Amino acid sequence: MEDRRCGVAVIGAGTAGLHAYEAAWNMGADTLLIEQGSGGTTCTRYGCMPSKALLAAAHAAHAARRAGGFGIRTGDIHVDGEAVMARVRALRDRFFAAVLEDYDAIPADHRLHGTACFTGPDRLVVGDTTIHADAIVIATGARPIVPESLDPVRALVHTHETIFDIETLPRSLAVLGAGPVGLELAQAFARLGVAVTLFDEDDIVGGLGDPQVNASARAALSQEVTMRLGVTVTAEAQDGRARLSWTGAEAGSESFDLILAATGRPPCLDPLALDTTGLALDDHGTPLFDHRTRRCGDSAIFVAGDAGSWRPVLHEAARGGRIAGMVAAGGEAPRVLPAFAITFTDPQLVEVGTGFADLPDGARIGEAKPADNGRAVIERTTEGLVRLYADRDGRLIGASIAAAEAEHLGHGLALAIDRGISMADFADQPWYHPTLEELLQQAARDALGED
Ligand SMILES: Cc1cc2nc3c(=O)[nH]c(=O)nc-3n(C[C@H](O)[C@H](O)[C@H](O)COP(=O)(O)OP(=O)(O)OC[C@H]3O[C@@H](n4cnc5c(N)ncnc54)[C@H](O)[C@@H]3O)c2cc1C
Ligand SMILES: NC(=O)c1ccc[n+]([C@@H]2O[C@H](COP(=O)([O-])OP(=O)(O)OC[C@H]3O[C@@H](n4cnc5c(N)ncnc54)[C@H](O)[C@@H]3O)[C@@H](O)[C@H]2O)c1
Question: Is the whole-model pTM more than 0.80?
């Protein structure tokens, strides 16, 4: 067994880990980055980037199909599935290579290959090496799970880790899970001509906590994807296909070429043997940590990225990694920023700041409909709903949106919420006409009781 000492040990070289490594190193700490795989990130390999590349092709097909509504005749639209998937993989490989380059640029003696496992609060074992670290950052990410109910048809089941490797498009696809992963990929494949049915045990899509925005998103998305929500699914193999049966008011069964399991991504914590650390864990075995400093209790162990099951999105992995690395090396943590998540469907789904379930007493809600917005009417993007939340003092605290181009609305809202702006000041900003941004002004005025 070899012994090694370091200031900060970072477990996982994904987005969170790479940022943690860089931040600790920049603080002058003797930093070690431990990775069990080949490097690269979930985002580039089978997350954000290939899913957005697939959606881009899908939205292009959709735009071509709906051009007739503007008086533009395109003829029949043919989707070349092999070309679409090849482009997705080419882009994925390009983004992946860029991240690998950054990883490979880290000096070899600052990296250790292998699976890390705690043997105490300040000790890790990686293969034949025992590492004694002043501080340790857990940045081990999350992995998809496949429900046991799909065991009978396992050979036909993909997750987001394998679906981008299919060479051609299936004729039919069942997607289990209407979270962001399931929703984005269900709409992408549907727009590419695949017959898609989306199943979920719950009746919420994209994690939307606001019931009215959820209902408007469901109504919009179900025009392209068959939705079976609030159902339990069982599976059996039949003639090389997967026959799924579901419960509920409209119980039934249907055969599919392929299945995508998008039923959640629990954090990768099992191999870490966290029981040896003395950390307080939640009911799922995830360490409890301070969301500002990323520190677990009074320990010298920190959590960043999807490993913490808190805001599992890319910018939080990057920022959380930076904060964990900095604080682990003796720096100060900045403030917590508003939550911000986008699901890149059409309409896009955006949640910013305080969610509907956490609205304080006396909160006010203002609404606006794309159907009443001149620009949305011109662009034929009238689906969805915008809801803004203010606290009882009139401060803008959150928003839930289903609308075209909502990603742009969300960024402005995140800044306004972070700066603690009042709904009155927000409504009084310069809102250019005709823009979708005017939806925000309209919703703010609605919350203020103005017309
Ligand atoms: C399909 C999909 C689409 C997404 N789209 C978006 C999007 O559009 N926008 C957005 O903001 N977010 C998106 N996300 C979420 C985003 O990808 C994640 O939040 C982010 O990649 C998490 O980064 P991470 O560093 O926590 O984990 P990862 O990048 O997964 O890194 C974890 C690393 O830890 C390593 N590791 C694990 N255990 C050990 C161990 N014991 N020892 C050593 N190494 C270990 C792993 O090998 C891995 O390299 C998407 C996710 C998915 C699945
Ligand atoms: N655009 C983005 O930023 C983006 C895109 C994709 C993923 N992500 C991130 O990745 C995280 C994980 O996303 P996800 O969609 O994999 O997980 P999720 O936990 O958000 O959603 C999983 C869904 O699967 C359902 N489900 C669970 N078991 C089921 C079963 N047996 N049958 C039917 N339905 C079942 C759940 O009810 C839930 O709706 C998200 O929270 C998000 O932060 C972000």
Answer: yes
Q: How many angstroms separate the alpha carbon of residue 439 from the centre of ligand 1?
A: 34
Distance 262 CA to ligand 1 centre (A): 15
Same domain? For 118 and 169 the reply is no
Q: Quick one: pLDDT at residue 20? A: 98
Domain of residue 222, residue span: 148-261
Q: Does the annotation flag 182 for ligand binding? A: yes
Q: Is residue 257 included in any domain, yes or no?
A: yes
> Is residue 291 domain-resident?
yes
Classify residue 99: in a domain, yes or no: no
Q: Residues near ligand 2 with C-beta < 6 Å?
A: 147, 149, 176-182, 184, 199-202, 207, 233, 262-265, 312-313, 341-344
Per-10-residue mean pLDDT for the chain, 451 residues long? 96 98 98 95 98 98 97 95 98 97 94 98 98 98 98 98 98 98 98 98 97 98 97 97 94 98 98 98 97 98 98 98 98 98 98 98 98 98 98 98 98 98 98 98 97 71
Of 218, 180, 223, nearest in space to 350 by CA: 180
Number of domains in the chain: 3
* 166 falls within a domain: yes
CATH of the domain at 376: 3.30.390.30
Q: Does the annotation flag 61 for ligand binding?
A: no
Specify the residue for token string 């009074």.
Answer: 298
